[in-house]
Every structure is written in structure tokens, then in C-alpha cells.
Structure prediction request, 355 residues.
Amino acid sequence: MRKTFSKAAVCVATCLILAGCGGSPASTPAADESQAEQTTQTSATSADEQAQGIDYLALVNKLNPLPDGWEDSLETVHMTNSVGDDVEVEKKAYDAYLELKAALEEEGVHVDLDSAYRSIAAQQKIMDDFTQKYGADYAKKTVATPGYSEHQTGLALDLYLNIDGKDIVMNEDLVQYPEVWEKIHAKIADYGFTLRYLEGDEHITGYGYEPWHIRYLDDPAIAKEIADQGITFEEYKAGKVMPEVSYDFGKSDLYTAEELEEAAIQAKCEFATFEGCELHNLRYAGDECNTKENLDWLNSLDEGAKYTQVVELLTDFHTPVEGGSAWEADTEMKDYQWWLAREEGKGWQLVTWGY
Ligand SMILES: [Zn+2]
Prediction:
């Protein structure tokens, strides 16, 4: 089990307090991905470090960091785009991109690569520069935390357009061509790419709509399955790991079933990273979790947060048969808590979990 530690904070839940095992998610700044991207520099990867191979289906987002050892296994290539920038991309993703680009050209659509691989060191440098210039609070809000950007996989590609011989590179200009993006999005799955930041799914992905940001999965069948279902990669991963989870949202005067399901997806996506755990059910603890006491507690755990509402979810699950986690091996866990909160007008954030 990753990221677990003995929780110092007092559990103020109305539910059972069992063993002292708890955990906390990594910090989850509300970074605007596009802002961080524009100042990024690429860095070279030594050929000596390339070898073992990477998991093309790894989920990297604001809650799930780049897997350990990723940069040692990553194999990248460099290309120069039409505006003269050096862009570094994972090798197979680049080959697939070239095929996609050729297929699009047959339809009169011209794309190029704006940004792809970004090393943790490069991201850290941006974070440090911003922190020095504007202070830590601003830096956290505008720059993706090093290790938590999908661009660090080398598999995330930001496209830009060439229309009537003119390069369109700025985000605010790119969004003016929905019909062009539609043609592009219809093709990407055939080459193993998925559109990551879907419109209206910011509460799941952590990012607003980005028609240009595509992610290589190395498997057109999976990419097509995701596209056909119209779901996010987060939901795909959660569904694959836990196909048989039952839900019970009970009754709530505070939240709609849809709002509770959005919270459940967040918890389920994090759970999907707990290798070997088997989640059985997930239920809403009830409106009495939305107390001022709980709000104060969650706000104290997340620096700078101004949460106004709380959701507590309870889960039953089975720990991995082969130990290796913070939990006792092969054990049925009951009423394990997931605490989510949201700020006014924003989506749910998973703040902490544990007993
Ligand atoms: Zn991007």
C-alpha cells in the first residue's frame, strides 16, 4: 500500500473507530495544466537508462504520481515542430502519432506537436521559479506538482493545428476550431490514443476540457472501448480493477445521487491504485457527516483549502492475499472511510482516508 501513515489527526467520525491505520493522499493543487505547460523545457534522456519498459496503462493525475522508476525505463525521441521547438516524446507514442498525423492529413487536417514529455526535474524547476517569484501559494495553484503531471509519462501529447498554412498554437485560439477537433478525436483511438480531459468531467480528471491533450495507451482496442463508452481514463481504470462493486447511496437531503456518484468515482479511482485490494461495496455514510467539525478537520489537512461541504463514504474490501501492504494480508476490512470535500462551485476532492 502506498502513501499510508499513522494518522495523527483525531477521527471525528460518527462511525466505528478501529485500528490506527490511516492514510492521506498526496497534495492536490488546483493546477491549471495549460499554464504550467507553456513555460516547460524538455530535457534529454540518457540511452543508458532506457531498458525495462513502462506500463502504458499507468494512471497519472493529481492523485496518482508517476510510478517509481519510470524515468529510468522511459525511452524517448526528439523532434522539431513547425515553430522550431524541440519536443521529446516516448518512442512508441511518437511512432503512433506519426501514423495518426498522416491519416489526418488525408482528411485535410494538419496537426503538430506542441509539448509532450516533461521531466520531473524540469517541472520542479518551474515550481521553484514560480515559488521564488510569486510565492508558494500562487505556484501551487498554477503549476502542476512535480510527479503528478501526465506529461511526465512521455505519453501525453499536446497537439496544435495548422489551418490554411497558419500555425494555431495558443489555447484560446485552438478552442475556436471544434469541428477540426471533432475530426481528430474521431481518429485517435485507431492509433491507441485517448482524449484525457473531457468536457464536463473536471471533477473526475482534475482538469477542464482540453481538446489538444491526448494520451497514448499502446492499445487501440482499449482506446476504442473508452471512446465508445464516452468515459474518462480514470473511470476505465476504476472499472477494470473493480468490476463488481456495489453502491448504496441511501437517502440524502444534501446531495443528489449523481453528486454522490461523482464522489464515489474519486474514491474508486484512488482505490484502483491499491494493488491487489478487492473492493466489495461503497456506500454513503449519511448527511450527518457534513458537520462543521469535519469541515474544520478536512480544511486543516489540506493547506489553503476552503471546503464548504463534506462527503464520507464507507467501504468494505479485502486486503491483498500476498501481504506487502500497510494492512494485514488477506483480511476483510469493514467500514473503511473515505473523506471527500468540495469548495463552493467546485468538484469533490479526496482529502483523506483510513479508520
Ligand atoms: Zn497537455
